[in-house]
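Hi support team,

I'm filing this because I wasn't sure whether my run with flavin-adenine dinucleotide finished correctly. The job status page said complete, but I'd like someone to confirm that the output block is well-formed before I use it downstream. Pasting the exact inputs I used:
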Amino acid sequence: MTPAFGESTFKELEGALRGRILLRGTEGYDQSRQVWNAMIDKRPLAIVKVAGVSDIQATVRFARERGLPVAIRGGGHNVAGSAVCDDGLVIDLAAMKSVRVDPSARRARAEGGVLWGEYDRETQAFGLASPGGAVSTTGIAGLTLGGGFGYLSRSYGLACDNLISADVVTAEGDFVTASGDQHPDLFWALRGGGGNFGIVTSFEYQLQPVGHVLSGFVAFPFTMAEAVLKRFREVALEAPDHRVWFAAILPLPGAGKLVAVLMSDFGPEEEGWQALGPIRELGSIVLDTVARVPYCVMQRQLDANSPKGQRHYWKSAYLNELSDETIGLLVSAMENTEGVLDQVMIETQGGAISRIAKDATAFEHRQVRFNLGIFGVCTNPGLDEAVIAWARSLHGRILPYSTGGTYVNYLSMGDDVHTAYSDARFGRLAGIKARYDPGNLFRFNHNIAPAQ
Ligand SMILES: Cc1cc2nc3c(=O)[nH]c(=O)nc-3n(C[C@H](O)[C@H](O)[C@H](O)COP(=O)(O)OP(=O)(O)OC[C@H]3O[C@@H](n4cnc5c(N)ncnc54)[C@H](O)[C@@H]3O)c2cc1C
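And here is everything the job wrote out:
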């Protein structure tokens, strides 16, 4: 039970900040407690809009002294809504937007409130990029801390694999830099263990040279879903590292339910067009957006499909193969959706992700071939229960064909975080949590309780 806190208590903190505090009933509070997923409706005691490291330290110490739990908000995209909480403090990094690129060292340092679209814009000014998310409005923070898969990952690894160091405010309010040489245990945990271990104030990434890319999707009528997914399976499994394929069954505004295959190819253009051949020859194409585009255009191509304010419930499963049975289950579930916006998406993993040593980072699932996302989506709260039941039911039927593992960044509220890690890795993470946050101050996340 959280003790009562009055306005005067927070005035004391506000006096120590460069940023500001939003209390219940003040202007901006309701807007600031909303996250990407409208199914989340949390009412924190206060939202602290921090302006820098010293604000974060002051707020962490304030919260500790008063026994107040703390939620950390980066981009606010996590489907579980763990960036906000009821009756605790939210430390909101949205105003911390600095990105500094060092083109000669091919490194960039970005603050914890930066979104991928903002990061890409700055790094692309130098013709450089780091593997990041496939939707530009996602935060760099949560995505990197959980692993971070994107179009460049088969070429250069996950976002966390390209992390060189991270500045962190710990649960004590101390400032530390975690890297291969400094606090290496913390650095290991930050690369896949989620937001459990401290507040990352800035991330230092490796950059890669990236310019234009052949990218886009080819969409077909839903009636072709089985044939299209089987062809997707063939091309995805044969692809070189510089080519990544996604497949989805989803509704597109004005076009109804479609099956779509997305390709992004960072290799020679001619090879990319040839690789599209087996997909295009299926015929009856409803929409074909594939073109040679600037990197930032590619990074935004799915944004319109992921607007803020819809109601989401996700389940995910890693697959080592995309069997005929799995394809059949996905197609029949999409024939009988509950919300008109429900969708399933399959991302191809492998490439550089699988060549990084198994224990190099806290991220677990380096050898899997596909990541399946089952997205229950609606806009009407009255449909919440139905879309949740739909996603859970499909997930239950897919489980026997999956590895049993999950991607921590796709877990919904109430999901078991242990499914994202082996027992050994979970134990190691719990040990590191005990070292850096023994009181579990940072508990509004896919929580790894400190080892006893
Ligand atoms: C539309 C959409 C597209 C997505 N696409 C991809 C994708 O292509 N690839 C992929 O891998 N994932 C993807 N995801 C999943 C995404 O990685 C997670 O939702 C991720 O948590 C989002 O990060 P955020 O900073 O926006 O989230 P937030 O909700 O702000 O935070 C997520 C978690 O991280 C913690 N956290 C946030 N900031 C910090 C910080 N500075 N220090 C410590 N902890 C912090 C929070 O406590 C919270 O528990 C997508 C999600 C959405 C909604």
